Amino acid sequence: MFPDLSAVKAFIFDVDGVLTDGTLLALNSGEQARTFHIHDGYAIRHALKQGYRIAIISGREEEGVRKRLESLDVRDIFLGVDDKMKIFNNYINTYRLDPQHIAYMGDDMPDIEVMRRCGLATCPADAAPDVLAISQYVTSKPGGRGAVRELLEATMKAQKTW
Predict the structure, then answer these.
(1) Are 136 and 119 in contact (CB under 8 A)?
(2) How far is it, in rounded angstroms, from Cα 90 to Cα 8?
(3) Which residues of 115-134 are buried (b: 16+ CB within 10 A; e: fewer)?
(4) Measuring CA to CA, how many Å separate 109 from each of 41, 61, 84?
(5) Each residue of 43-70: pLDDT tens digit?
(6) Residues 4-41: pLDDT tens digits?
(7) Is 37 within 8 Å of 149 (Cβ atoms)?
(8) Pick from 90, 102, 110: which is nearest to 15 by CA?
(9) 151: which of 5, 80, 132, 160 is 20 to 30 A away, CA to CA?
(10) pLDDT tens-place string over residues 111-126
């Protein structure tokens, strides 16, 4: 069953396993490189231009990730987060958002608490079993391979903003 996407006004995404495929390339410099899908990037920029709020909450802190997200005009970027629920609560209070209007996409255990609090819990096709079990929308695509685009496009098409 396809969920009702008409109430979504904001999106929050995890990074590893959602915007990336979860693979880390360990470089000799100590950096850990990731790959992002260009289709996800296009959809993020398009959603922002249409007035949707987009935030990122990730447990890892990497400057390359921040730069990629900033290049897409994402302004609400929270990296190196230990308590995703605390950031989520601060975010909705700062912008006076109703949690029922937020779609959150996560892929693993640190995302579950926020997924239970938001209006639409979503995940990529290859998310952890516990996340799949609580998700109202599971993309047909895996993380880092267009899952974010799929959710954004489906929501915006449902709202006639795509």
Answers:
(1) no
(2) 19
(3) bebbbbbbbbebbeeebeee
(4) 25, 18, 11
(5) 999 999 999 999 999 999 989 999 999 9
(6) 899 999 999 999 999 999 888 888 988 888 899 999 99
(7) yes
(8) 110
(9) 80
(10) 999 999 999 999 999 9
Return the bridge partners of 54, or none: 11
The helix or strand, by DSSP H or E, that contains position 45, with its residue range, turns out to be helix 38-49
**Residues in CB range of 12: below 8 A, 6 or more apart:** 54, 55, 56, 57, 88, 91, 102, 103, 104, 105, 114, 118
DSSP state of 110: G
What gap in Å lies between CA 134 and CA 132, rounded to an integer? 6
Q: Specify the 3-state DSSP secondary structure of 123.
A: strand
- Token representation of residue 22: 């979860």
Q: Are 132 and 114 in contact (CB under 8 A)?
A: no
